[in-house]
Amino acid sequence: MNNISISQLKVNPSKFISLAGDYPVAVEKRNKIKAYLIGKNLYEKIIDYLENYIDQKAIEQTDFKKGRDFEKIASQLGI
Q1: Backbone phi, then psi, for 26, in 5-degree steps?
Q2: 3-class DSSP state for residue 4?
Q3: Which of 31, 35, 43, 61 is at 20 to 30 A from 22, Cα to Cα?
Q4: CB of 33 within 8 A of CB of 27?
């Protein structure tokens, strides 16, 4: 992981945004990490992973033995 200072980020943000494409870039202020800069693709991968994880946990915790009427659920959801 690359570490940069806030001053470096201010001088050339495009350079560090491109560096953050696949791996986070740590942004430091007075030698302490204050933020991470991540690229669009990495952000989308993280969000996809989290959504899949949440869906998987919901499925694992669902008791499918208690059936519900699809039409009733669809009308409640407005679909």
Answers
A1: -80, 130
A2: strand
A3: 31
A4: yes
Could you identify the residue written with the tokens 């430091």?
28
Residue 41 token pair: 């693709």
Position of tokens 């008791």? Answer: 63
* Amino acid making up residue 13: P
User: 27 is written with which tokens?
Assistant: 């942004």
Listed as own residue / partner, the contacts of 68-76 with beta carbons closer than 8 Å and 24 or more positions apart are: none
47-78 pLDDT, tens digit per residue, is 999 999 998 988 888 777 777 777 877 788 88
Contact of 36 with 24, CB cutoff 8 Å: yes
Q: Quote the distance between the C-alpha of residue 9 and its chain's center.
A: 22
pLDDT at 6: 92
Average pLDDT, integer, range 14-42: 92
Q: What is the DSSP letter of 64?
A: T
Residue 7 predicted with pLDDT over 80: yes
